[in-house]
Amino acid sequence: MTSPFSIGIIQDLADQDPAANLARATRLIREATARGAQIICLKELFNAPYFCKAQHADRFDLAEPIPGPTTDALQTLAKELEVVLVVPLFERQGPGVYRNSAAVIDADGSLMGVYRKMHIPDDPLFYEKYYFTPGDGPSPAGSPLSPEASGFKVWKTRYATIGVLICWDQWFPEGARLTAMQGAEILVYPTAIGWHPAEKATHGEHQQAAWETMQRSHAIANGCFVVAVNRVGFEPDPSSSGKPQAGIEFWGQSFIAAPDGRIVVRAPVEHEAVIVQEIDLAEIDASRIGWPFFRDRRIDAYAEITKRFGDGD
Amino acid sequence: MTSPFSIGIIQDLADQDPAANLARATRLIREATARGAQIICLKELFNAPYFCKAQHADRFDLAEPIPGPTTDALQTLAKELEVVLVVPLFERQGPGVYRNSAAVIDADGSLMGVYRKMHIPDDPLFYEKYYFTPGDGPSPAGSPLSPEASGFKVWKTRYATIGVLICWDQWFPEGARLTAMQGAEILVYPTAIGWHPAEKATHGEHQQAAWETMQRSHAIANGCFVVAVNRVGFEPDPSSSGKPQAGIEFWGQSFIAAPDGRIVVRAPVEHEAVIVQEIDLAEIDASRIGWPFFRDRRIDAYAEITKRFGDGD
Q1: Within the 104-133 window of chain A, which residues sit less than 8 Å (CB to CB) from chain B?
Q2: CA-CA to A137 of 20 to 30 Å: which in A81, A257, B6, B279?
Q3: CA angle B153, B155, B159 (to 5 degrees)
């Protein structure tokens, strides 16, 4: 592996035309590559509007299999450009089994695998539990299902070992930890997060700060890089067109955090951006020697973390 | 329980005289109480200099049992003032078994129990593995040892349910999670953290930011309050008196973070301070409804968190 090397972030928007969205992503990937990016990450559900703003059965038509036409096209592109691509897609795994997924394509164009979002949100304007089957937990021993199909995981790409988690996953320290423990040098979080118009004035600043803070904490706690790739721009909710301001203002501000938690680069809040940033993987070992958290984890005392909650009161 | 209510933070220093340190703490606790504080937290190893800067067998003389003279005195004070006290002490549990502990005293003066630091650091100027036996993990079923003696835990005090963790624990999301899952409304982190003179210029800003970021992330991920109580001021290392700048500059900046991660109050970097801050426990449920992370934890997929690390390479 070569280090330092460069990460590329495509912070963009998407409209109703999947072909146009793929064409835009292709153009921006070529731009990032021309500027030196070697691992390039797209936003969550990259080739569609964030359709989960409302529950509509016809939106399942946006899904496609992995491998499928979109990953085929991007595998060809990855091979041509010799870049690693993280491609978040609405995946149709089978009839009635739809996932919020991300395909990982190596720099030789091979499809390395797919991560399926483990933590699925469900809030006003984010109706994801309607659309997505959560990623599966570990298969029991002896299961005929491939262990590669489930859970938190990493891929040893040509340039670095990366783990992929998706959006809501970013609020759960467990997901970051379990991915880092498998050797991830970079945690990639394709994301679609923004302000609800009714909340922006009162809570918007704290919401964005909390989002960034949580992901910086994953970098610190796990001594690795975090790459957050967000959507940008306002998307109206088509089902609520009669209401003023109905929709989501995606807050951009994609960023890279280093193992010491510092923000290396941050994209703008309101504009499409292609970020290309050199990072040095040697920072990982240096950070973990300076802050040896893995040395001191109390693994004898963590078993209860598989419980839901205590008794409370 | 009454809410809103007020938290008190005693951010101070300590010199070589334990009696003077107790007298100072008593005076500052009275001041905090006069200003309305109901749960008052002292810094890590409150009644001694941070003696772990070097390995000296005679410093074990600083330890005392719990209950012991210091907790006796502070139980009397707590009863008189009707305040809850978190009292971090160097505990002598028995011959050769010394702990970095915190006693919890309820507002009626009763000693509710003791937390024993689970994650023990060991770095230049922080030689804690020499002095402290780590807090024990959970006792196996049928053990004659009291389960109350070990692990992560909470106390239902008169004013709130609090969990106590100590300093290095603050870097481990697992400890915060396991304490919050038991119902903690407030996570208290008595701390002794500062700048190593050789590192302050190059790393100091990022180190302090990382420290604050990690603890804010515990507030966010667990939808609870976090109260960090740090030591302040420069302490020379007596064993290194010949070297310029040998010692630790404790960076103060004790703070309270709300469940949405915002910093409610932050103490100064260089001065002793008594912080009294009203907080509203109703923010906890509001935050957890807005960000329902406990709803969505993938407890079926977290078992591997009890492993040390993957194969890596």
Answers
A1: 118-121, 123
A2: A257
A3: 145
